């Protein structure tokens, strides 16, 4: 009888580059990384890409190809102490190895600043070759000192041809292991549910095949959909559920429902979602959905982001809950968000209109002679710190881009704009 607890994607993890599928731009023939690997020397690096694109596999292959000791840490469970212990072990191994040991850190974006700082010395001195894997932009998630010592390689979701190759290999592997023929009649559902994630594709294939009987085992779109739905996790923080859940969370805040917002927050927290990801979404919601109806919301959300970064789970969930409820119960306005969108559309429509001469900077006498800055009136020299002059290009005079929202705070703004500008903007 066919039984295994190791997922198909793990059983099929390639050990050599010739078996590695995808990422031709990063590790294909003629690429810089391929040449470095051939020379026996690779830099410390960050592999940035969506789930299932081969980041962990590539790190393993690099270590095997170079015949280097390989150490692995998960940023979800490792602390500073764990990092230092692994580095000490790696240093010991380096005394007997040709080249620095490989230190692979999965989800390095989840490491705090202190954890990342603890890597610096060993990386800088070449005592380890760091390979970090992340699904988040390393420019924001990896400290600059560490990032400057690493080469960043961007991995892309697998294309249709690459996924098809994986399917063929996976089907052949399962057929051999189960000693049964497999009739893969339809692949649309497998492709759609994978989302370019090779690991998910193979594991969904195994679910579908295991859910069928007979010889051959017939796999079609209905079989795949039913099998996957029966095995959906409560919260897939690396897949489609991740985006569905945060979408429900933000829409509940936007809809002023604190009960629903806290519920979706709890689902994410219990599912192990990165607290910094949630905090970032709260900052965005404060600006996009609450806006100037309650400007304090952005201040609180920014404070939440900083606090969560310093505290971490489990206490960070309390801070996230406070901010979530505050945003959900705040008055809402997307007026500033729409003002930006209107302005961007206008820029695309009208192109690069010249800056009016009176608004231009005039640091030299030549620029002054050309009229730069001429007739500009300094607002603070006039009553009420205001004077009616043109600030838009002449072709856009009187164009309204910001329309204050229907709330108490922005009603005050509307009245002030009406007093200042009269009919110019029609407020």
Topology (SSEs and partners):
Elements: H1 8-11, H2 24-27, H3 32-39, E1 45-48, H4 55-66, E2 70-74, H5 80-94, E3 102-106, H6 113-124, E4 129-134, H7 138-141, H8 144-147, E5 151-154, H9 160-178, E6 182-184, H10 188-194, H11 198-210, E7 217-219, H12 221-230, H13 240-254, H14 258-270, H15 275-290, H16 296-311, H17 316-329, H18 335-350, H19 365-369, H20 408-421
Parallel strand pairs: 1-4, 1-5, 2-3, 3-4, 6-7
Helix pairs in contact: 5-6, 9-11, 10-11, 11-12, 13-14, 13-15, 14-17, 15-16, 15-17, 16-17
How would you describe this protein?
52% of the residues lie in helices and 7% in strands. It has helices at 8-11, 24-27, 32-39, 55-66, 80-94, 113-124, 138-141, 144-147, 160-178, 188-194, 198-210, 221-230, 240-254, 258-270, 275-290, 296-311, 316-329, 335-350, 365-369, 408-421; strands at residues 45-48, 70-74, 102-106, 129-134, 151-154, 182-184, 217-219. The protein has four domains: 22-154, Rossmann fold, CATH 3.40.50; 160-230, Helicase, Ruva Protein, domain 3 (Orthogonal Bundle), CATH 1.10.8; 240-329, Zinc Finger, Delta Prime, domain 3 (Up-down Bundle); 341-421, post-AAA+ oligomerization domain-like (Orthogonal Bundle). Strand 2, helix 5 and strand 3 (102-106) form a beta-alpha-beta unit. It is globular, with a radius of gyration of 28 Å. The protein contains 20 helices and seven strands. With 427 residues, it is α/β, with parallel strands linked by helices. It has a five-stranded parallel sheet with strand order 2-3-4-1-5, sandwiched between helices.
């Amino acid at each position: 009888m066919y039984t295994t607890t190791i997922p198909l994607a793990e059983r099929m993890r390639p050990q050599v580059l010739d078996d590695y599928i995808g990422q031709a731009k990063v590790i294909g023939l003629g690429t810089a990384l391929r040449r470095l690997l051939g020379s026996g020397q690779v830099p410390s690096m960050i592999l940035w890409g969506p789930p299932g694109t081969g980041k962990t596999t590539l790190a393993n292959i690099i270590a095997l190809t170079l015949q280097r000791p390989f150490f692995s840490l998960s940023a979800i469970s490792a602390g500073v102490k764990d990092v230092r212990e692994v580095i000490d072990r790696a240093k010991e191994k380096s005394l007997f190895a040709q080249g620095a040991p490989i230190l692979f850190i999965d989800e390095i974006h989840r490491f705090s600043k202190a954890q990342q700082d603890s890597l610096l010395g060993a990386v800088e001195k070449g005592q380890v070759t760091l390979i970090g894997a992340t699904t988040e932009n390393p420019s924001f998630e990896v400290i600059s000192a560490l990032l400057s010592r690493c080469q960043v390689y961007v991995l892309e979701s697998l294309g249709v041809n690459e996924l098809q190759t994986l399917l063929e290999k996976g089907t052949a592997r399962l057929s051999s292991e189960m000693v049964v023929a497999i009739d893969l009649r339809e692949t649309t559902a497998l492709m759609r549910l994978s989302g370019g994630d090779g690991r998910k594709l193979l594991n969904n294939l195994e679910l579908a095949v295991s859910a069928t009987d007979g010889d051959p085992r017939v796999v079609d779109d209905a079989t795949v959909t039913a099998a996957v739905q029966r095995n959906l996790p409560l919260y897939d923080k690396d897949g489609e559920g991740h985006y569905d859940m945060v979408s429900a969370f933000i829409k509940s805040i936007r809809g002023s429902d604190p009960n629903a917002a806290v519920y979706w927050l709890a689902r994410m927290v219990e599912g192990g979602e990165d607290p910094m990801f949630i905090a970032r979404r709260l900052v965005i919601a404060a600006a996009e959905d609450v806006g100037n109806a309650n400007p304090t919301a952005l201040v609180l959300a920014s404070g939440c982001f900083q606090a969560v970064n310093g505290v971490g789970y489990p206490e960070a969930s309390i801070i996230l809950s406070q901010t979530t409820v505050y945003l959900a119960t705040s008055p809402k306005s997307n007026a500033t968000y729409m003002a930006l969108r209107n302005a961007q559309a206008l820029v695309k429509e009208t192109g690069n209109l010249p800056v009016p001469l009176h608004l231009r900077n005039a640091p030299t006498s030549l620029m002054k002679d050309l009229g730069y800055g001429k007739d500009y009136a300094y607002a603070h020299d006039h009553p009420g710190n205001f004077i009616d002059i043109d600030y838009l290009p002449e072709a856009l005079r009187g164009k309204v881009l910001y329309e204050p929202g229907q709330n108490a705070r922005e009603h005050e703004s509307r009245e002030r704009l009406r007093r200042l500008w009269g009919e110019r903007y029609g407020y």
